[in-house]
From TrEMBL:
It comes from the Eukaryota. GO terms for molecular function: carbohydrate:proton symporter activity. Residues 32-485 form the Major facilitator superfamily (MFS) profile domain. It holds the Pfam family Sugar_tr. It is a multi-pass membrane protein. Its main location: membrane. This is Major facilitator superfamily (MFS) profile domain-containing protein. It is found in: Membrane. It comes from Aspergillus nanangensis. The chain crosses the membrane at residues 28-45, 72-90, 102-122, 128-149, 161-182, 202-221, 303-326, 332-354, 361-383, 395-419, 431-451, 463-481. Residues 519-538 are annotated as: Disordered. Keywords: Membrane, Transmembrane, Transmembrane helix, Transport. Belongs to the major facilitator superfamily. Sugar transporter (TC 2.A.1.1) family. The lineage of its organism: Eukaryota, Fungi, Dikarya, Ascomycota, Pezizomycotina.
Amino acid sequence: MAVGATPVMQTGISHGDAGYKGLVQNPFLLFLSCFASIGGVLYGYDQGVISGVLVMNNFAKQFPTLAHDATLQGWMVSVLTLGAMFGALANGPIADRLSRRWSILLANVLFLIGSIIQAASVNVPMVFIGRFVAGLAVGQLSMVVPLYISELAPPHLRGGLVALQQLGITVGIMVAFWFNFGTQHIGGTGDGQSPVAWRLPLALQCLFSLILAGGTFFLPYTPRWLMMQGLDREDEALATLARLRRVAPSDPRVADEILQIKASALFDNETTAAMFPGVTSSSRLSLERYKSLFTVRHLNRRLLTACLLQLIQQFTGINAIIYYAPQIFRKIGLTGSSVDLLATGVIGIINFLCTIPPPSLLIVGGVGMGISQLIVATLYAVYNSSWASHSAAGWATAVFVWMYICNFAFSIGCVNWVIPAEIFPLGVRSQAVGVAIGVNWLSNFCVALITPRMLDSIEFGTFYFYLAFCVFLVVWVYFFLPETKGVPIEEMDRVFGGHQGEQDRVRMENIAIQLGVGSKSGGAESKKDGQVEQVESV
Ligand code: BGC
């Protein structure tokens, strides 16, 4: 997900407006990014579908051991995230080798296999294997979709387009919740419920996957990946870029952008040579890059920040709710005529709607999440044994679960994907982002595993436990997390130490001069219509 603060090469060409206006001006790009974000939909759907399935009568009949064993349930839910962690970590080299485009196809093939096994399950091992295989694919997609979009997008639209992945996730969760709500009625919600009630939502995900898989045959390669293949494919990179921008290959904006991409590829090579002198074998290089993340002081500080953010995101308890909402709602007395799944459906809608505005302050979101968790936990503690006679308390608790979701969605729900990419120098960025996403999945795994047991044993204590992480988030962000938005990489050095950013800036300046688009003064002099635009390297 190369969307971070990289040394900039300034040129005189304006590429258009940023923000929503810019997106509307680029409908083809917007379409491609939305299409690739179906990967996010698969991610969200697979996460969301299981909560409703778990409380369906017929599912419990088919798999009684699962239905009555909180530990086994935790493993079943979390095995997907375990697969996803491996998928995310393994996909970097796959996406470099096969291309971003074909690695999306590969992920979809795995996803289809995993989904078919899940939908056709006749015993518990089949459920586990299906979820693990689908998890591998979801992890791959969580890494490659943002990468693909960021390499298609011009720098001024990159952040907004990459955020589509999170929007895709929330769409997936929402569709899964409401689909469950509908299909549970097949054969009735009671004893007569048909197996189709839970098999159908598990099978439906194949449809999204087939659409995305079919589309990969029409998706373009990214110009950046083509450029990485060497001189042979430079012309193809130019033609692809022109097609993406809907202009002729001779258009000065395309010529300028391809120069940026070339500069960035050169920059990448030079940075690698400077960081790891004498290392030529690609596997050794890859190993050295990972090693440096742990051994170079300023890099491991950055890594700690990126990984802590992922860990906290998960331990604020978002997936305790996404995975187990219907069970929580049942416990607090929202039982009559599928109210549990209805209340869960509302979560899906709130999560989606609150993701649409641009992400806001982490602190505000953290405080909102903390207050909501505190109220949920306290109501849970007070009415623990008397929900049936206090339905108003049950509904008040549900409202604060929804408030929690809203605060999550507009803050840490999106920001966690962006910050890791902003704080690392390019030479180790993809490795660092891969490790950070791996930590996200690992933490997700732990939350999925421990939540059902906690709900059974410490009950309301579960929410106090997650509240502690909301408090930690606020304190950590306030005192320790540096502002990264719009901060140049050389400023990052001041925060984390080292001189990497400063060295990178000088290197990029030299490359710009080499390519004839910059000067030593720290920026390009070529101005058009009096405008100078800062262009981030890809
Ligand atoms: C998280 C997921 C979560 C989703 C909810 C994402 O940012 O990484 O674990 O389920 O948000 O919208």
